[in-house]
């Protein structure tokens, strides 16, 4: 049995009043109202309290708007806030928020039970606080295991107790002759307004108690907005009336000094005690119902480890998550027995507030992106959701900055853990829409012409079958080093491969690259031959200004292909693309990746681009230990000194850390010098002539290959892009 079954109609499904309104309102009217509200009024006075209540409720109201928008967009199943977040922001973010949310709710049960036990022992001092807590936990847990409906109905009784306590307070009388103090005690004796705000704010954040029952509701899309708004409205009215009663019946100093002031000014003080018990028990019950359902949803979505799959089970007519409930009860019993949770209580509050903030961010992002899939019945402008998120973040810092940092750290650790597990979620998320919007924004702001200082390679690799020419992909990956784009392109025969198979080819190549930890775009194109296919790719591939500026390809070894190969290189150059040709006669690859030789003729065009490529290579993990040697040949000793002075200045200004060497020919042939100097190198770079005249380039290329055939792996570089590459270096 799994969580999806919770949405099937059943006679046990809850309505708006029982499923959302009651648990939410009872959590809002909690212990703070009874034991701390007088202190609030005493410190900031009637006007200050009304401001705090209004501001706090406004933030909660904005969050409820976001919740309502998300809840009315698509069918809502079990898991409450976790479900809403995960279906929008993805499994990793949903889990990173959902796991702390479960822990916060589970430990909240312990906090409420301990608070109830302390109040009972204060009246009956002979009782043992631990045993009171254990018995209370077992009773509430048994009720939650027995029947969700019965548990909810018990909250109606608790609501009655709270109503009696509030009525008793309203019918009471002043404790002393006093007048309403609009601003509380003098500033020297009072606590700062924002500190008081931070103490009160958690009182109005109980709306999640109802949202967590989403899987047990007959109509979540209707019940969640309606029940949440009703709870916030009723809570707001009560919290706006209470300060008037308190301020009119006791002076500010008395309200601060006497935490039991309500009991003393009520017509029947015992009703206030019953209200305190009701508040703690109702809050504990709400958390005990909500926490297991979040745990169940986490297990059902495979967010938790495999051993936790048992928590996805539901039993009985009401589909109660008994395994998750038993685990939560056990956790509560342990924490109640061992005691004080005051140290982690602030962090738990931050987990709740983080959930509210993320819900606001989710709604704002959905609206802002304008996704076709986001069509909520309850429409809210994204500005209100953004204000809610900012309000939650501000309150978190006000309440406890250190606890906020700790909560974010825990969430970040869980997110990284889930990301590494590579959870396969079937429901998608906002990620693609967010990235699409960012890409759109960036594309329209890219410069039409490349700026030398901001130049980066965008490489189109004509690899053919990736496995056969892996060194091309390897070189492109090392050059880009995760800081630039490159695309692996395969040209397939249009007679042998139908169009409907192209996507399958692309997916297989992507998987192949992923298994080798290579991040690259993949494009498969059908063509009559590789040369026309490559030409077509260079002409058409790219998006706006984001197009490849560098073509990386292998050598052609068949004489019959020399002419179309040369025509293709010529087309690349005329298209203003840089060309990198990798020639490896002996298929030896890059060997140890320890020595790179650059045969240099100067700083302009090819020379500058080779220096840049070598520098990018040396910054990669694979080539970081390599030495780069720039070699220049001069005819005689007279030319040596001038060349050395020039190179000293150039390399000092380039700041690459490369070594350079000036070789004197003394009548020797250049190719012989190169063969001797670079015979043990791992990679040799040299410039390629501009392929302008038809026929001439073919002869030149054949001669170049013949004269360098004894050398190891070579890279011929042709700078075709209209970029002043020397300005990248100097």
From TrEMBL:
Its main location: membrane. The chain crosses the membrane at residues 12-35, 47-72, 93-117, 129-149, 156-173, 193-215, 227-246, 266-289, 320-338, 344-363, 384-417. GO terms for molecular function: chloride:monoatomic cation symporter activity. The keyword Transmembrane applies. Keywords: Membrane, Transmembrane, Transmembrane helix. It is a multi-pass membrane protein. InterPro entries: AA-permease/SLC12A_dom (IPR004841), SLC12_C (IPR018491), SLC12A_fam (IPR004842). It holds the Pfam family SLC12. Residues 471-583 form the SLC12A transporter C-terminal domain. Residues 20-459 form the Amino acid permease/ SLC12A domain. The keyword Transmembrane applies. It is found in: Membrane. GO terms for cellular component: membrane. This is Na-K-Cl cotransporter. It comes from Cyclobacterium qasimii. The lineage of its organism: Bacteria, Pseudomonadati, Bacteroidota, Cytophagia, Cytophagales.
């Amino acid at each position: 049995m799994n969580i999806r079954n919770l949405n099937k109609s059943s006679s046990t499904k809850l309505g708006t009043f029982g499923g959302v309104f009651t648990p939410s309102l009872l959590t809002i009217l909690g212990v703070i109202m009874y034991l701390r509200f007088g202190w609030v009024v005493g410190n900031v006075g009637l006007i200050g309290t009304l401001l705090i209540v209004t501001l706090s409720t406004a933030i909660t109201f904005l969050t409820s708007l976001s919740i309502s928008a998300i809840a009315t967009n698509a069918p809502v199943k079990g898991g409450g806030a976790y479900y809403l977040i995960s279906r929008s922001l993805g499994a990793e973010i949903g889990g990173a928020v959902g796991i702390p949310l479960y822990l916060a709710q589970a430990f909240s049960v312990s906090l409420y039970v301990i608070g109830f036990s302390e109040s009972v022992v204060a009246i009956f001092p002979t009782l043992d606080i631990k045993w009171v807590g254990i018995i209370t936990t077992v009773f509430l847990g048994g009720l939650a295991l027995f029947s969700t409906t019965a548990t909810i109905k018990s909250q109606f009784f608790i609501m009655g107790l709270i109503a009696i306590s509030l009525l008793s307070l309203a019918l009471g009388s002043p404790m002393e002759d006093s007048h309403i103090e609009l601003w509380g005690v003098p500033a020297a004796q009072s606590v700062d307004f924002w500190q008081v705000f931070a103490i009160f704010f958690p009182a109005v954040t109980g709306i999640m108690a109802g949202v967590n029952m989403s899987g047990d509701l007959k109509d979540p899309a209707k019940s969640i907005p309606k029940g949440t708004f009703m709870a916030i409205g009723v809570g707001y009215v009560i919290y706006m009336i209470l300060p008037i009663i308190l301020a009119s019946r006791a002076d500010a100093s008395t309200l601060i000094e006497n935490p039991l002031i309500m009991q003393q000014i009520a017509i029947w003080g015992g009703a206030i005690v019953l209200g305190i018990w009701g508040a703690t028990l109702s809050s504990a019950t709400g958390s005990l119902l909500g926490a297991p359902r979040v745990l169940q949803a986490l297990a059902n979505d495979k967010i938790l480890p495999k051993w936790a799959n048992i928590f996805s089970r539901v039993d009985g007519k009401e589909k109660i998550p008994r395994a998750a409930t038993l685990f939560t009860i056990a956790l509560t019993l342990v924490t109640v027995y061992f005691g004080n949770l005051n140290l982690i209580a602030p962090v738990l509050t931050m987990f709740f507030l983080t959930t509210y903030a993320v819900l606001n961010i989710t709604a704002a992002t959905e609206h802002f992106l304008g996704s076709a899939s986001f069509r909520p019945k309850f429409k809210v402008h994204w500005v209100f959701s953004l204000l809610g998120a900012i309000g939650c973040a501000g309150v978190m810092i006000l309440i406890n900055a250190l606890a906020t940092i700790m909560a974010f750290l825990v969430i970040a650790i869980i997110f990284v853990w889930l990301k590494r597990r590579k959870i396969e979620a079937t429901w998608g998320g906002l990620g693609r829409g967010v990235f699409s919007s960012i890409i759109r924004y960036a594309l329209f702001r890219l410069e039409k012409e490349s700026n030398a200082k901001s130049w980066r390679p965008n490489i189109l690799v004509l690899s053919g079958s990736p496995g056969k020419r892996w060194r091309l992909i390897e070189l492109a990956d090392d050059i880009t080093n995760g800081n630039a784009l490159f695309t692996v392109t395969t040209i397939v025969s249009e007679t042998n491969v139908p169009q409907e198979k192209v996507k399958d080819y692309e997916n297989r190549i992507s998987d192949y690259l992923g298994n080798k930890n290579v991040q690259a775009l993949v494009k498969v194109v059908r063509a009559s031959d590789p040369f026309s296919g490559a030409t077509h790719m260079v002409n058409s591939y790219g998006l706006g200004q984001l197009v490849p500026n560098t073509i990386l390809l292998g050598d052609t070894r068949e004489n019959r292909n020399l002419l179309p190969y040369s025509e293709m290189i010529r087309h690349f150059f005329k298209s203003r693309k840089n060309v990198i040709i990798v020639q490896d006669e002996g298929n030896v690859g890059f060997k140890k990746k320890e020595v790179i030789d650059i045969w240099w003729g100067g700083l302009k065009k090819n020379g500058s681009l080779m220096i840049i490529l070598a520098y990018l290579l040396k910054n990669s993990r694979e080539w970081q230990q390599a030495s780069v040697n720039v070699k220049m040949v001069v005819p005689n000793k007279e030319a040596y000194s001038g060349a050395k002075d020039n190179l000293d200045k150039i390399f000092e200004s380039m700041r690459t850390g490369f070594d350079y060497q000036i070789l004197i020919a003394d009548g020797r042939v250049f190719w012989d010098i190169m063969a001797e100097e670079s015979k043990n190198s791992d990679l040799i770079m040299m410039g390629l002539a501009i392929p302008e005249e038809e026929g001439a380039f073919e002869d030149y290329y054949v001669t170049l290959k013949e004269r360098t055939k004894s050398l190891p792996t070579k890279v011929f570089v042709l700078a075709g892009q209209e970029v002043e590459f020397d300005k990248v270096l100097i």
